Amino acid sequence: MKETVLDLLMFLFENYMEDEDHFPPQNERAGLQMKLLEAGFDHDEIEHAFGWLEGVLEQGGVAGPERDQAFRVYSDDEQMMLDTDARGFLMQLEQIGVLSPSSRETVIERAMALGEDEIDVERLKWIVLLVLFAKPGEEQAFAWMEDLVFDDAAVLH
């Protein structure tokens, strides 16, 4: 089975970041890169993953409006990558207050940056988790998503 960048990011979070409160700083990445190479990940995938994390950090501090009355229209490319279930999941997260409009936009942008053909709801949960992990002031939303991803006990209603 071919591992994707998102698979690598999930592995990285579960093994090296879960107990941290931030993404690995630049000075720790060489050591992490060696561990990821030893785990069997490709050098190019590792570079793409670290670049993806940098993209989250660059957008992590960008604040947007807390409430947005605008209707989000997805581009054709976004609709191809995020099917109806995935887009509905994002809308639910926004409606229950887990995602702000600016966080939603970061999630969509980061999903597109993965370069995958399609991202299902299960993989989208991980993208949301990683984006919330990097966003200051989103600790409560991150904790809720962490429970959803790891426990599968939370139910959206």
Write up this protein:
The protein has 157 residues and is an all-alpha fold. It has 8 helices and no strands. α1 packs across α3 (43-60), α3 runs antiparallel to α6 (101-113) and α7 (121-134) runs antiparallel to α8 (139-151). It is globular, with a radius of gyration of 15 Å.
Mean pLDDT, rounded to whole units? 86
C-alpha Rg (nearest Å): 15 Å
Q: Any idea what the shape is?
A: globular
Percent of residues in beta strands? under 5%
Kindly state the percentage of residues in helix: 55-70%
Contiguous helical run count = 8
* Straight-line distance between termini: 35 Å
Q: What summary fits the major beta sheet?
A: none
The poorly predicted ranges are none
SSE string = HHHHHHHH
Task: Summarize this structure briefly.
By secondary structure, this protein is mainly α. It contains eight helices and no strands.
Blueprint (SSEs and pairs):
Elements: H1 5-17, H2 29-38, H3 43-60, H4 76-81, H5 84-95, H6 101-113, H7 121-134, H8 139-151
Helix pairs in contact: 1-3, 3-6, 6-7, 7-8
